[in-house]
Amino acid sequence: MISGSTRLAGSLRDALDTVTDPSPELLQGGRRARIEALQQPQLDPEFVERCRLALARLVALEDEGVIAVCSARRGEGRSSVAAALAVTLARGRAEGRVLLLDLDFGHAAQAALMGVAPSPGLADFLEGRERLRLAAGGPNRQLWHVPGGTHLGDPVRLFHALTGEAMLPVFRQKFQWVVLDLPPLLGHPETVPVVRSVDWQVIVGRHRRTMVADLREVAEIVGGGKQSGFLLTGDSTRIPALIRRLL
Amino acid sequence: MLHRALDVVFQHMLRLVTALLLVPLGAGAVGLALDHSLTVEARVWADKPTFTPVFATDRFTSSDPPAEIEAGILRELLATSAFADAVFTRVESGYASASPSQRRSAAADLESNVSVATEGTHLFTVSYRTTDSDRGRSVVSAIIAAFGTEVQAIDANQVGVTQAAVKSQLDVAQLDMNDAVRQVQTYQAQHSSVFNDPTYQTLLGQAQSKTDHYLSLQARLDEIKGSQAAVSVMQSSFFHVVDRPFVVPLTLDQHAPAVKFALYAVIAIVAAEALFVYVIGRRDPRIRSVQDVRRAAGLKPLGSVPVLTRTR
Description:
The complex is a heterodimer.
Chain A: H1 5-20, H2 24-28, E1 36-37, H3 45-59, E2 65-71, H4 78-93, E3 98-102, H5 110-114, H6 122-126, E4 135-137, E5 143-146, H7 155-164, H8 167-174, E6 177-181, H9 192-197, E7 200-206, H10 212-222, E8 228-235, H11 241-246
Parallel strand pairs in A: 1-4, 2-6, 2-7, 3-5, 3-6, 7-8
Antiparallel strand pairs in A: 4-5
Chain B: H1 2-11, H2 13-34, E1 38-46, H3 66-78, H4 81-91, H5 100-113, E2 114-119, E3 123-130, H6 133-190, H7 198-238, E4 239-248, H8 257-283, H9 290-297, E5 300-306
Antiparallel strand pairs in B: 1-3, 1-4, 2-3
Helix pairs in contact in B: 1-8, 2-8, 4-5, 4-6, 6-7
Protein backbone atom coordinates (compact mmCIF):
# COMPACT_ATOMS: atom_id res chain seq x y z
CA MET A 1 0.00 0.00 0.00
CA ILE A 2 2.99 2.21 0.19
CA SER A 3 3.11 4.33 -2.88
CA GLY A 4 6.25 5.22 -4.82
CA SER A 5 9.18 6.19 -2.63
CA THR A 6 10.11 9.23 -4.67
CA ARG A 7 6.64 10.58 -4.27
CA LEU A 8 6.78 9.82 -0.53
CA ALA A 9 10.01 11.75 -0.05
CA GLY A 10 8.50 14.68 -1.89
CA SER A 11 5.32 14.61 0.10
CA LEU A 12 7.38 14.32 3.29
CA ARG A 13 9.32 17.42 2.33
CA ASP A 14 6.07 19.26 1.58
CA ALA A 15 4.53 18.11 4.80
CA LEU A 16 7.52 19.25 6.81
CA ASP A 17 7.55 22.57 4.97
CA THR A 18 3.89 23.05 5.73
CA VAL A 19 4.46 22.54 9.40
CA THR A 20 7.91 23.86 10.10
CA ASP A 21 8.52 26.53 7.41
CA PRO A 22 5.13 27.61 6.04
CA SER A 23 5.33 29.85 2.96
CA PRO A 24 3.84 33.38 3.15
CA GLU A 25 1.02 32.28 0.85
CA LEU A 26 0.22 29.44 3.19
CA LEU A 27 0.25 31.76 6.17
CA GLN A 28 -1.94 34.37 4.40
CA GLY A 29 -4.40 31.70 3.40
CA GLY A 30 -4.52 30.45 6.97
CA ARG A 31 -3.62 26.99 5.79
CA ARG A 32 -0.73 26.40 8.14
CA ALA A 33 -1.16 23.06 9.87
CA ARG A 34 -2.06 23.18 13.52
CA ILE A 35 0.87 22.01 15.65
CA GLU A 36 0.21 19.97 18.75
CA ALA A 37 1.99 20.88 21.94
CA LEU A 38 4.42 18.40 23.54
CA GLN A 39 4.46 17.98 27.27
CA GLN A 40 7.65 17.95 29.28
CA PRO A 41 8.73 14.28 29.38
CA GLN A 42 8.42 12.71 32.82
CA LEU A 43 12.10 11.97 33.26
CA ASP A 44 14.28 12.05 36.35
CA PRO A 45 16.68 15.06 36.17
CA GLU A 46 19.58 12.78 37.18
CA PHE A 47 18.70 10.47 34.31
CA VAL A 48 18.64 13.37 31.84
CA GLU A 49 21.94 14.73 33.19
CA ARG A 50 23.69 11.38 32.78
CA CYS A 51 22.32 11.18 29.24
CA ARG A 52 23.73 14.66 28.60
CA LEU A 53 27.18 13.51 29.72
CA ALA A 54 26.91 10.41 27.54
CA LEU A 55 25.94 12.57 24.59
CA ALA A 56 28.94 14.82 25.18
CA ARG A 57 31.23 11.79 25.14
CA LEU A 58 29.71 10.58 21.88
CA VAL A 59 29.32 13.66 19.70
CA ALA A 60 31.90 15.94 21.37
CA LEU A 61 31.61 19.39 19.76
CA GLU A 62 29.56 18.42 16.69
CA ASP A 63 26.48 20.60 16.28
CA GLU A 64 24.24 18.61 13.96
CA GLY A 65 23.53 15.08 12.87
CA VAL A 66 21.39 11.99 13.23
CA ILE A 67 21.64 9.82 16.32
CA ALA A 68 20.11 6.34 16.39
CA VAL A 69 19.25 4.91 19.77
CA CYS A 70 19.06 1.15 19.62
CA SER A 71 19.16 -1.88 21.84
CA ALA A 72 19.48 -5.63 21.49
CA ARG A 73 16.04 -6.42 22.85
CA ARG A 74 12.97 -4.71 24.28
CA GLY A 75 12.71 -3.31 27.78
CA GLU A 76 16.22 -2.00 28.04
CA GLY A 77 15.40 1.68 28.44
CA ARG A 78 15.96 2.73 24.86
CA SER A 79 12.89 4.99 24.47
CA SER A 80 13.64 6.84 27.70
CA VAL A 81 17.23 7.40 26.62
CA ALA A 82 16.10 8.62 23.18
CA ALA A 83 13.65 11.06 24.80
CA ALA A 84 16.30 12.27 27.25
CA LEU A 85 18.81 12.80 24.43
CA ALA A 86 16.27 14.78 22.41
CA VAL A 87 15.37 16.91 25.42
CA THR A 88 19.07 17.50 26.17
CA LEU A 89 19.79 18.51 22.58
CA ALA A 90 16.79 20.85 22.51
CA ARG A 91 17.79 22.47 25.79
CA GLY A 92 21.45 23.02 25.31
CA ARG A 93 23.05 22.01 22.06
CA ALA A 94 20.73 23.14 19.31
CA GLU A 95 19.96 26.57 18.01
CA GLY A 96 17.69 25.00 15.41
CA ARG A 97 15.15 22.23 15.78
CA VAL A 98 15.53 18.77 17.26
CA LEU A 99 13.33 15.94 15.99
CA LEU A 100 12.53 12.84 17.96
CA LEU A 101 11.39 10.18 15.52
CA ASP A 102 9.73 7.07 16.87
CA LEU A 103 10.51 4.23 14.49
CA ASP A 104 9.52 1.41 16.82
CA PHE A 105 6.30 0.83 14.88
CA GLY A 106 3.86 -1.27 16.79
CA HIS A 107 5.51 -0.57 20.16
CA ALA A 108 5.84 3.20 19.93
CA ALA A 109 6.39 4.61 23.42
CA GLN A 110 7.49 8.15 22.73
CA ALA A 111 3.96 9.51 22.33
CA ALA A 112 3.15 8.47 25.89
CA LEU A 113 6.39 10.00 27.17
CA MET A 114 5.72 13.26 25.35
CA GLY A 115 2.06 13.39 26.31
CA VAL A 116 0.56 13.23 22.83
CA ALA A 117 -1.74 10.73 21.10
CA PRO A 118 0.17 7.78 19.57
CA SER A 119 -1.75 7.87 16.29
CA PRO A 120 -1.82 8.96 13.61
CA GLY A 121 1.90 9.03 13.07
CA LEU A 122 4.73 8.19 10.73
CA ALA A 123 3.42 4.71 9.90
CA ASP A 124 0.06 6.12 8.90
CA PHE A 125 1.79 8.73 6.74
CA LEU A 126 4.09 6.17 5.07
CA GLU A 127 1.12 3.92 4.33
CA GLY A 128 -0.64 6.91 2.76
CA ARG A 129 -3.57 7.04 5.12
CA GLU A 130 -2.86 10.23 7.00
CA ARG A 131 -1.05 13.53 6.70
CA LEU A 132 2.25 13.78 8.58
CA ARG A 133 1.51 14.71 12.16
CA LEU A 134 4.10 16.58 14.23
CA ALA A 135 4.08 17.89 17.75
CA ALA A 136 6.40 20.54 19.14
CA GLY A 137 7.41 21.73 22.58
CA GLY A 138 10.22 22.94 24.73
CA PRO A 139 11.80 26.41 24.75
CA ASN A 140 11.09 28.18 21.44
CA ARG A 141 9.45 25.03 20.16
CA GLN A 142 12.80 23.47 19.44
CA LEU A 143 11.80 19.92 20.29
CA TRP A 144 9.70 18.21 17.66
CA HIS A 145 8.21 14.78 17.68
CA VAL A 146 6.71 12.48 15.07
CA PRO A 147 4.77 9.66 16.76
CA GLY A 148 5.16 6.12 15.45
CA GLY A 149 1.54 5.77 14.50
CA THR A 150 -0.31 2.59 13.62
CA HIS A 151 0.83 0.36 10.82
CA LEU A 152 -1.56 -1.92 8.98
CA GLY A 153 0.99 -3.50 6.66
CA ASP A 154 4.35 -5.09 7.23
CA PRO A 155 6.64 -2.76 9.22
CA VAL A 156 9.55 -4.05 7.11
CA ARG A 157 8.11 -2.10 4.19
CA LEU A 158 8.04 1.06 6.27
CA PHE A 159 11.80 0.80 6.84
CA HIS A 160 12.36 0.08 3.15
CA ALA A 161 10.42 3.24 2.40
CA LEU A 162 12.50 5.24 4.85
CA THR A 163 15.85 4.07 3.53
CA GLY A 164 15.03 3.27 -0.10
CA GLU A 165 14.15 6.79 -1.03
CA ALA A 166 16.47 8.59 1.30
CA MET A 167 13.81 10.03 3.53
CA LEU A 168 16.23 10.48 6.39
CA PRO A 169 18.14 13.20 4.52
CA VAL A 170 14.84 15.05 4.21
CA PHE A 171 14.48 15.06 7.98
CA ARG A 172 18.15 16.02 8.30
CA GLN A 173 17.60 19.06 6.02
CA LYS A 174 14.76 20.32 8.15
CA PHE A 175 16.16 19.60 11.60
CA GLN A 176 19.57 20.31 13.15
CA TRP A 177 19.45 17.13 15.21
CA VAL A 178 17.39 14.00 14.55
CA VAL A 179 17.07 11.34 17.25
CA LEU A 180 15.76 7.97 16.09
CA ASP A 181 14.10 5.59 18.50
CA LEU A 182 14.63 2.26 16.74
CA PRO A 183 13.12 -1.16 17.39
CA PRO A 184 15.41 -3.81 18.94
CA LEU A 185 18.15 -4.75 16.49
CA LEU A 186 17.99 -8.49 17.19
CA GLY A 187 15.01 -9.91 15.30
CA HIS A 188 14.54 -6.76 13.22
CA PRO A 189 17.05 -6.94 10.39
CA GLU A 190 15.12 -4.25 8.49
CA THR A 191 16.51 -1.65 10.90
CA VAL A 192 20.14 -2.41 9.97
CA PRO A 193 20.32 -0.06 6.93
CA VAL A 194 18.87 2.77 9.03
CA VAL A 195 21.37 2.17 11.84
CA ARG A 196 24.27 2.15 9.43
CA SER A 197 23.17 5.31 7.68
CA VAL A 198 23.14 7.57 10.73
CA ASP A 199 25.98 9.66 12.12
CA TRP A 200 26.08 8.17 15.63
CA GLN A 201 24.66 5.14 17.33
CA VAL A 202 23.87 4.93 21.01
CA ILE A 203 23.52 1.30 21.99
CA VAL A 204 21.57 0.82 25.16
CA GLY A 205 21.87 -2.16 27.50
CA ARG A 206 20.29 -2.75 30.87
CA HIS A 207 22.38 -3.55 33.94
CA ARG A 208 22.08 -7.22 35.01
CA ARG A 209 19.57 -7.88 32.24
CA THR A 210 21.09 -7.49 28.80
CA MET A 211 23.13 -10.49 27.66
CA VAL A 212 26.75 -9.86 26.80
CA ALA A 213 26.36 -12.18 23.79
CA ASP A 214 23.46 -10.07 22.50
CA LEU A 215 25.54 -6.93 22.77
CA ARG A 216 28.39 -8.58 20.91
CA GLU A 217 25.94 -9.38 18.12
CA VAL A 218 24.63 -5.81 18.12
CA ALA A 219 28.18 -4.48 17.93
CA GLU A 220 28.79 -6.64 14.87
CA ILE A 221 25.59 -5.36 13.24
CA VAL A 222 26.40 -1.74 13.98
CA GLY A 223 29.98 -2.12 12.93
CA GLY A 224 31.50 -0.37 15.93
CA GLY A 225 33.89 2.48 15.37
CA LYS A 226 34.14 5.89 16.88
CA GLN A 227 30.55 6.79 16.05
CA SER A 228 29.16 4.07 18.34
CA GLY A 229 28.86 4.16 22.08
CA PHE A 230 27.29 2.11 24.81
CA LEU A 231 25.08 3.47 27.56
CA LEU A 232 24.28 1.27 30.55
CA THR A 233 20.72 1.81 31.77
CA GLY A 234 19.08 0.82 35.00
CA ASP A 235 22.44 0.94 36.77
CA SER A 236 21.54 -0.49 40.16
CA THR A 237 25.04 -1.35 41.27
CA ARG A 238 25.65 -0.84 44.97
CA ILE A 239 29.41 -0.56 44.70
CA PRO A 240 30.26 2.56 46.70
CA ALA A 241 31.30 5.55 44.65
CA LEU A 242 34.68 5.65 46.39
CA ILE A 243 35.55 2.12 45.26
CA ARG A 244 34.31 2.84 41.75
CA ARG A 245 36.55 5.88 41.59
CA LEU A 246 39.51 3.80 42.79
CA LEU A 247 38.81 1.19 40.13
CA MET B 1 36.34 -9.60 36.45
CA LEU B 2 36.95 -7.37 39.48
CA HIS B 3 34.05 -5.09 38.55
CA ARG B 4 31.77 -8.07 38.07
CA ALA B 5 32.86 -9.68 41.33
CA LEU B 6 32.33 -6.43 43.23
CA ASP B 7 28.92 -5.98 41.64
CA VAL B 8 27.93 -9.49 42.75
CA VAL B 9 29.30 -8.84 46.25
CA PHE B 10 27.42 -5.58 46.69
CA GLN B 11 24.27 -6.95 45.05
CA HIS B 12 24.11 -9.80 47.58
CA MET B 13 25.86 -7.94 50.40
CA LEU B 14 23.01 -8.33 52.87
CA ARG B 15 22.69 -12.07 52.22
CA LEU B 16 26.45 -12.61 52.35
CA VAL B 17 26.84 -10.75 55.62
CA THR B 18 23.80 -12.47 57.11
CA ALA B 19 25.18 -15.87 56.17
CA LEU B 20 28.58 -14.93 57.50
CA LEU B 21 27.05 -14.08 60.86
CA LEU B 22 24.26 -16.60 61.20
CA VAL B 23 26.00 -19.76 60.03
CA PRO B 24 28.96 -19.50 62.46
CA LEU B 25 26.54 -18.53 65.24
CA GLY B 26 24.43 -21.58 64.44
CA ALA B 27 27.50 -23.81 64.29
CA GLY B 28 28.69 -22.37 67.60
CA ALA B 29 25.29 -23.02 69.15
CA VAL B 30 25.36 -26.62 67.92
CA GLY B 31 28.87 -27.00 69.33
CA LEU B 32 27.70 -25.58 72.62
CA ALA B 33 24.74 -27.95 72.73
CA LEU B 34 26.89 -30.99 71.92
CA ASP B 35 29.69 -30.01 74.27
CA HIS B 36 29.48 -31.86 77.58
CA SER B 37 33.05 -31.21 78.56
CA LEU B 38 34.20 -29.14 81.51
CA THR B 39 37.46 -27.60 82.56
CA VAL B 40 39.38 -28.52 85.68
CA GLU B 41 41.93 -25.95 86.73
CA ALA B 42 44.58 -25.54 89.38
CA ARG B 43 46.56 -22.44 90.27
CA VAL B 44 50.22 -22.76 91.08
CA TRP B 45 52.50 -20.21 92.70
CA ALA B 46 56.01 -19.85 91.34
CA ASP B 47 58.72 -17.80 93.00
CA LYS B 48 62.46 -17.28 92.84
CA PRO B 49 64.09 -19.22 95.72
CA THR B 50 65.72 -17.08 98.38
CA PHE B 51 68.37 -19.76 98.82
CA THR B 52 69.91 -21.43 95.79
CA PRO B 53 72.54 -24.13 96.32
CA VAL B 54 75.75 -23.61 94.40
CA PHE B 55 75.27 -26.63 92.22
CA ALA B 56 71.46 -26.51 91.79
CA THR B 57 69.40 -25.07 88.96
CA ASP B 58 70.41 -21.85 87.31
CA ARG B 59 67.10 -21.23 85.54
CA PHE B 60 66.10 -18.42 87.87
CA THR B 61 69.13 -16.38 86.95
CA SER B 62 67.24 -14.94 83.96
CA SER B 63 65.09 -11.82 84.26
CA ASP B 64 61.88 -13.61 83.18
CA PRO B 65 59.04 -13.72 85.74
CA PRO B 66 58.99 -17.00 87.71
CA ALA B 67 55.50 -17.85 86.43
CA GLU B 68 56.76 -17.62 82.83
CA ILE B 69 59.77 -19.80 83.61
CA GLU B 70 57.78 -22.54 85.33
CA ALA B 71 54.89 -22.43 82.81
CA GLY B 72 57.39 -22.65 79.95
CA ILE B 73 59.05 -25.73 81.42
CA LEU B 74 55.65 -27.37 82.00
CA ARG B 75 54.55 -26.67 78.42
CA GLU B 76 57.71 -28.30 77.10
CA LEU B 77 57.28 -31.27 79.37
CA LEU B 78 53.65 -31.75 78.28
CA ALA B 79 54.87 -32.39 74.76
CA THR B 80 57.01 -35.34 75.86
CA SER B 81 55.71 -38.89 76.07
CA ALA B 82 57.79 -39.63 79.17
CA PHE B 83 55.98 -36.89 81.07
CA ALA B 84 52.60 -38.19 79.85
CA ASP B 85 53.58 -41.64 81.10
CA ALA B 86 54.56 -40.17 84.46
CA VAL B 87 51.18 -38.39 84.70
CA PHE B 88 48.96 -41.29 83.69
CA THR B 89 50.88 -43.77 85.82
CA ARG B 90 49.74 -41.67 88.75
CA VAL B 91 46.14 -41.48 87.49
CA GLU B 92 45.53 -45.04 86.27
CA SER B 93 46.86 -48.01 88.15
CA GLY B 94 47.00 -50.23 85.06
CA TYR B 95 48.69 -47.65 82.87
CA ALA B 96 52.08 -49.34 83.20
CA SER B 97 50.79 -52.26 81.12
CA ALA B 98 49.11 -50.03 78.48
CA SER B 99 49.83 -50.69 74.82
CA PRO B 100 51.97 -48.24 72.82
CA SER B 101 48.89 -46.97 70.96
CA GLN B 102 47.09 -46.30 74.26
CA ARG B 103 50.13 -44.43 75.48
CA ARG B 104 50.23 -42.37 72.29
CA SER B 105 46.58 -41.51 72.62
CA ALA B 106 47.08 -40.59 76.28
CA ALA B 107 50.00 -38.35 75.33
CA ALA B 108 47.90 -36.74 72.57
CA ASP B 109 45.04 -36.21 75.03
CA LEU B 110 47.39 -34.45 77.40
CA GLU B 111 48.91 -32.33 74.67
CA SER B 112 45.59 -31.20 73.20
CA ASN B 113 43.48 -30.81 76.35
CA VAL B 114 45.92 -29.35 78.80
CA SER B 115 46.70 -25.68 78.65
CA VAL B 116 49.11 -23.72 80.80
CA ALA B 117 48.67 -19.98 81.15
CA THR B 118 50.27 -17.36 83.32
CA GLU B 119 48.27 -14.96 85.46
CA GLY B 120 50.77 -12.33 86.48
CA THR B 121 54.42 -12.71 87.40
CA HIS B 122 54.00 -15.49 89.96
CA LEU B 123 50.77 -17.31 89.29
CA PHE B 124 50.19 -19.81 86.52
CA THR B 125 47.24 -22.08 85.85
CA VAL B 126 47.05 -25.64 84.62
CA SER B 127 43.74 -26.40 82.88
CA TYR B 128 42.48 -29.73 81.62
CA ARG B 129 39.36 -30.15 79.49
CA THR B 130 37.49 -33.40 80.10
CA THR B 131 34.00 -34.81 80.45
CA ASP B 132 34.74 -36.44 83.83
CA SER B 133 35.37 -33.97 86.64
CA ASP B 134 36.89 -36.55 89.03
CA ARG B 135 39.29 -37.79 86.44
CA GLY B 136 40.06 -34.20 85.53
CA ARG B 137 41.03 -33.42 89.11
CA SER B 138 43.19 -36.54 89.23
CA VAL B 139 44.93 -35.63 85.98
CA VAL B 140 45.63 -32.05 87.04
CA SER B 141 46.93 -33.21 90.42
CA ALA B 142 49.08 -35.79 88.66
CA ILE B 143 50.42 -33.17 86.26
CA ILE B 144 51.47 -30.92 89.11
CA ALA B 145 52.99 -33.80 91.04
CA ALA B 146 54.82 -35.10 87.99
CA PHE B 147 55.98 -31.59 87.20
CA GLY B 148 57.42 -31.21 90.71
CA THR B 149 59.17 -34.56 90.48
CA GLU B 150 60.48 -33.78 87.04
CA VAL B 151 61.85 -30.37 88.04
CA GLN B 152 63.40 -31.91 91.13
CA ALA B 153 64.94 -34.64 88.99
CA ILE B 154 66.38 -32.04 86.63
CA ASP B 155 68.00 -30.20 89.53
CA ALA B 156 69.12 -33.40 91.20
CA ASN B 157 70.59 -34.60 87.93
CA GLN B 158 72.59 -31.39 87.57
CA VAL B 159 73.96 -31.84 91.11
CA GLY B 160 74.59 -35.54 90.52
CA VAL B 161 76.60 -34.90 87.38
CA THR B 162 78.73 -32.34 89.23
CA GLN B 163 79.13 -34.72 92.15
CA ALA B 164 80.31 -37.53 89.88
CA ALA B 165 82.86 -35.25 88.22
CA VAL B 166 84.24 -34.00 91.57
CA LYS B 167 84.28 -37.56 92.93
CA SER B 168 86.46 -38.76 90.06
CA GLN B 169 88.82 -35.79 90.65
CA LEU B 170 88.88 -36.68 94.35
CA ASP B 171 89.83 -40.27 93.58
CA VAL B 172 92.75 -39.14 91.44
CA ALA B 173 93.83 -36.62 94.11
CA GLN B 174 93.68 -39.32 96.78
CA LEU B 175 95.99 -41.57 94.76
CA ASP B 176 98.42 -38.70 94.17
CA MET B 177 98.36 -37.81 97.86
CA ASN B 178 98.95 -41.41 98.93
CA ASP B 179 101.89 -41.73 96.49
CA ALA B 180 103.47 -38.51 97.78
CA VAL B 181 103.09 -39.55 101.46
CA ARG B 182 104.50 -42.99 100.68
CA GLN B 183 107.59 -41.41 99.01
CA VAL B 184 108.16 -39.22 102.07
CA GLN B 185 107.90 -42.22 104.43
CA THR B 186 110.23 -44.36 102.25
CA TYR B 187 112.84 -41.58 102.04
CA GLN B 188 112.65 -41.07 105.80
CA ALA B 189 113.17 -44.79 106.43
CA GLN B 190 116.24 -44.93 104.14
CA HIS B 191 117.96 -41.89 105.64
CA SER B 192 118.91 -41.41 109.28
CA SER B 193 118.79 -37.65 109.43
CA VAL B 194 116.39 -35.95 107.06
CA PHE B 195 115.50 -32.71 108.79
CA ASN B 196 118.03 -30.66 106.91
CA ASP B 197 117.88 -32.79 103.74
CA PRO B 198 116.66 -30.64 100.83
CA THR B 199 115.29 -33.66 98.95
CA TYR B 200 113.25 -34.68 101.93
CA GLN B 201 111.96 -31.14 102.29
CA THR B 202 110.90 -31.13 98.63
CA LEU B 203 109.09 -34.47 98.94
CA LEU B 204 107.39 -33.29 102.12
CA GLY B 205 106.23 -30.08 100.41
CA GLN B 206 104.73 -32.05 97.51
CA ALA B 207 102.94 -34.39 99.91
CA GLN B 208 101.48 -31.45 101.81
CA SER B 209 100.36 -29.77 98.59
CA LYS B 210 98.59 -32.90 97.32
CA THR B 211 97.00 -33.45 100.68
CA ASP B 212 95.65 -29.88 100.60
CA HIS B 213 94.26 -30.44 97.10
CA TYR B 214 92.61 -33.66 98.24
CA LEU B 215 91.07 -31.96 101.22
CA SER B 216 89.73 -29.08 99.17
CA LEU B 217 88.05 -31.52 96.76
CA GLN B 218 86.67 -33.42 99.72
CA ALA B 219 85.16 -30.20 101.07
CA ARG B 220 83.67 -29.43 97.69
CA LEU B 221 82.12 -32.87 97.48
CA ASP B 222 80.60 -32.44 100.91
CA GLU B 223 79.12 -29.14 99.70
CA ILE B 224 77.62 -30.88 96.67
CA LYS B 225 76.11 -33.55 98.89
CA GLY B 226 74.56 -30.75 100.88
CA SER B 227 73.07 -29.31 97.69
CA GLN B 228 71.65 -32.71 96.81
CA ALA B 229 69.72 -32.70 100.03
CA ALA B 230 68.70 -29.04 99.54
CA VAL B 231 67.13 -29.65 96.13
CA SER B 232 64.03 -31.34 97.53
CA VAL B 233 63.67 -28.76 100.31
CA MET B 234 64.21 -25.89 97.92
CA GLN B 235 61.42 -27.20 95.66
CA SER B 236 58.72 -26.21 98.11
CA SER B 237 60.09 -22.68 98.37
CA PHE B 238 59.58 -21.79 94.71
CA PHE B 239 56.75 -24.04 93.62
CA HIS B 240 53.52 -24.79 95.45
CA VAL B 241 49.85 -25.21 94.64
CA VAL B 242 47.68 -22.25 95.61
CA ASP B 243 44.28 -23.55 94.41
CA ARG B 244 43.84 -27.27 94.28
CA PRO B 245 42.15 -28.62 91.10
CA PHE B 246 38.59 -27.35 90.80
CA VAL B 247 35.91 -27.32 88.09
CA VAL B 248 35.68 -23.89 86.50
CA PRO B 249 32.40 -22.45 85.16
CA LEU B 250 31.78 -22.75 81.41
CA THR B 251 34.27 -20.69 79.44
CA LEU B 252 34.61 -20.25 75.70
CA ASP B 253 38.27 -20.48 74.85
CA GLN B 254 39.98 -21.59 71.65
CA HIS B 255 39.68 -25.25 72.66
CA ALA B 256 35.93 -25.14 73.22
CA PRO B 257 33.97 -27.09 70.56
CA ALA B 258 31.58 -24.17 70.15
CA VAL B 259 34.46 -21.84 69.24
CA LYS B 260 36.03 -24.44 66.99
CA PHE B 261 32.73 -25.11 65.21
CA ALA B 262 32.17 -21.38 64.76
CA LEU B 263 35.68 -20.88 63.37
CA TYR B 264 35.30 -23.79 60.96
CA ALA B 265 31.92 -22.40 59.91
CA VAL B 266 33.46 -18.96 59.27
CA ILE B 267 36.17 -20.52 57.11
CA ALA B 268 33.63 -22.67 55.27
CA ILE B 269 31.16 -19.85 54.70
CA VAL B 270 33.88 -17.46 53.50
CA ALA B 271 35.10 -20.12 51.05
CA ALA B 272 31.54 -20.84 49.89
CA GLU B 273 30.78 -17.14 49.44
CA ALA B 274 34.02 -16.59 47.53
CA LEU B 275 33.09 -19.50 45.27
CA PHE B 276 29.58 -18.10 44.85
CA VAL B 277 30.91 -14.66 43.88
CA TYR B 278 33.44 -16.20 41.51
CA VAL B 279 30.90 -18.46 39.81
CA ILE B 280 28.24 -15.77 39.46
CA GLY B 281 30.78 -13.19 38.33
CA ARG B 282 32.30 -15.61 35.86
CA ARG B 283 29.25 -17.46 34.57
CA ASP B 284 26.50 -14.84 34.61
CA PRO B 285 25.96 -13.99 30.91
CA ARG B 286 24.44 -10.57 31.67
CA ILE B 287 26.06 -7.17 31.75
CA ARG B 288 27.26 -6.17 35.19
CA SER B 289 29.46 -3.22 34.33
CA VAL B 290 30.31 -0.89 31.49
CA GLN B 291 33.72 -2.55 31.38
CA ASP B 292 32.03 -5.82 30.33
CA VAL B 293 30.84 -4.11 27.18
CA ARG B 294 34.21 -2.58 26.37
CA ARG B 295 35.91 -5.95 26.82
CA ALA B 296 33.30 -8.23 25.21
CA ALA B 297 31.85 -6.08 22.43
CA GLY B 298 34.51 -3.42 21.93
CA LEU B 299 31.99 -0.60 22.27
CA LYS B 300 32.98 2.78 23.63
CA PRO B 301 31.43 3.24 27.11
CA LEU B 302 29.38 6.41 27.39
CA GLY B 303 28.53 5.95 31.04
CA SER B 304 25.56 4.70 32.91
CA VAL B 305 22.17 6.01 33.92
CA PRO B 306 20.34 5.10 37.08
CA VAL B 307 17.10 3.17 37.29
CA LEU B 308 14.53 5.48 35.79
CA THR B 309 12.00 7.09 38.03
CA ARG B 310 9.59 9.22 36.10
CA THR B 311 8.70 12.58 37.47
CA ARG B 312 6.44 15.45 36.53
